[in-house]
Design goal:
Blueprint (H helix, E strand, L loop, with lengths): L34 E5 L3 H13 L3 E5 L2 H11 L3 E5 L7 H9 L9 E5 L4 H9 L4 E4 L4 H38 L12 E6 L7 E9 L2 E9 L3 H18 L6 H15 L6 E9 L4 E7 L4 E4 L5 E4 L15 E6 L5 E5 L11 H15 L5 H12 L10 E7 L3
Helix pairs in contact: 2-3, 5-6, 6-7, 8-9
Length: 401
């Protein structure tokens, strides 16, 4: 059966009665037939193509113009679109471009059916996102063959994406599992907000009990994002737990991490870190910096102080130069450790201005319940509707006793 050449008769908003009875948001069951959207301004062509597809068990939708096709695509989510090129008002090429720019319809494969069989038209259709181009008049067997090929390709791609997603979710869950929660050590008096840019992040934190009510607070930023950086967080945690304790000074702990990570990290990979050891009995907070943004200390009276230590990142130079500062703190004082995604943004302002905004937010929230403070500060600096460019991590801790 051949499909006639395109007509120029204008038909707007044409929809066939063959449309699925299922609502657009309802997912197609695994055994349901694929749905094909046919778009053509000639009713005869619509009927012919639909009959070819339905005779082989496919479900069909139909539209006589581009805007109707785009609306149906968003609502019904067809598995594939057969798209005419020469249509009044909005051409098939224009319809395709808009479909590909819409996140809801961008991954629907589009096959052009057109009387324009010159190379330039075919190349144009493929460049703007079409997966295939069939010149009219077409044979029913050719249409079926190409539809089946591209449906199989799409299902294969979906399966691969699904497998990749499952692996990333497993990695994310594994990474989340190694992160301590405030409920794990209530006496450590801390709160944390961590939002990785991707499924798994390169930012990391830990809170380590060191005995006699003493705790170590650790925040690090491993260069890069995603899977490769996330895999290293478990190694950092293991090292930290092994080399933190009464036997090791804070410098010893950081040097051990530096030594081992230097052997594990490849060229141009490193991590910045900040390690704070809080002894509530002596009211001493010891801070070790390793190329990391400054720790922020806010007294219970609302007086801020930044502890900026010029030091090397870990895993780069073989033996990093580390800086230490001992601070006298009082009950009710709070300190904040974070990664640079919270103070850096391409939207403007720069790192120094970002730090100033963070300090101001920490002061404003000095009386906010500790459990809510980290999330509120992050939401203030990076509202939920704002695009982020890096992992976001903020750890807030309060001095007890």
């Amino acid at each position: 059966m051949n499909l006639a050449d395109e007509s120029t008769s204008p038909i707007s908003g044409l929809e066939m009665s063959r449309q699925s009875d299922l609502p657009g948001e309802q997912k197609r069951a695994a055994m349901d037939p694929p749905t094909i959207l046919v778009v053509d301004d000639t009713p005869t062509n619509l009927e012919l193509v639909a009959s070819i597809l339905e005779a082989e068990g496919f479900r069909t939708l139909a539209a006589g113009d581009g805007p109707t096709a785009r609306g149906l695509s968003r609502a019904q989510q067809p598995d594939l679109i057969l798209l005419d090129v020469l249509m009044p008002g909005e051409t098939g090429f224009e319809t395709c471009s808009q479909l590909k720019s819409d996140p809801l319809t961008a991954d629907i494969p589009i096959i052009f059916l057109s009387a324009l069989d010159d190379v330039k038209s075919k190349v144009t259709g493929l460049k703007i996102g079409g997966v295939d181009y069939i010149a009219k008049p077409v044979h029913g067997e050719e249409v079926l063959a190409r539809v089946r090929v591209h449906l199989r390709i799409r299902e294969t791609n979906r399966a691969l994406v699904g497998q990749h997603r499952v692996r990333l979710e497993q990695l994310r869950d594994a990474q989340q599992a190694i992160l301590v929660r405030p409920d794990d050590y209530p006496e450590a008096r801390f709160a944390v907000h961590y939002k990785p840019l991707e499924e798994a992040g390169g930012d990391f934190y830990d809170v380590v009990p060191l005995g006699a009510g003493i705790f170590g607070y650790f925040v690090a930023d491993i260069s890069g994002h995603g899977v490769s950086a996330a895999f290293l967080t478990s190694a950092v945690k293991a090292l930290l737990r092994q080399y933190a304790g009464p036997v090791f000074s804070p410098e010893d702990t950081m040097r051990a991490v530096d030594s081992v990570m230097g052997q594990m990290l490849g060229e141009e990979r490193y991590l910045t870190a900040c390690y704070a050891r809080m002894n509530p009995q002596t009211h001493q907070l010891t801070v070790i910096g390793a190329g990391h943004p400054p720790l922020i200390l806010v007294t219970r009276n609302g007086v801020p102080r930044t502890v900026e230590l010029a030091s090397d990142p870990l895993g780069v130079f073989g033996a990093a130069i580390l800086r230490r500062q001992d601070l006298r703190v009082s009950k009710g004082d709070r300190f904040f450790m974070y990664t640079d995604g919270l103070i850096e943004s391409s939207a403007g302002g720069g790192r120094r201005q970002g730090l100033e905004r963070l300090v101001d937010a920490c002061v404003r929230h000095r009386a906010t319940p500790l459990g809510e403070s980290a999330a509120r500060i992050v939401a203030e600096l990076r509202p939920p509707d704002q695009d982020v460019e890096d992992d976001l991590l903020l750890l807030a801790a309060e001095v007890g006793q």
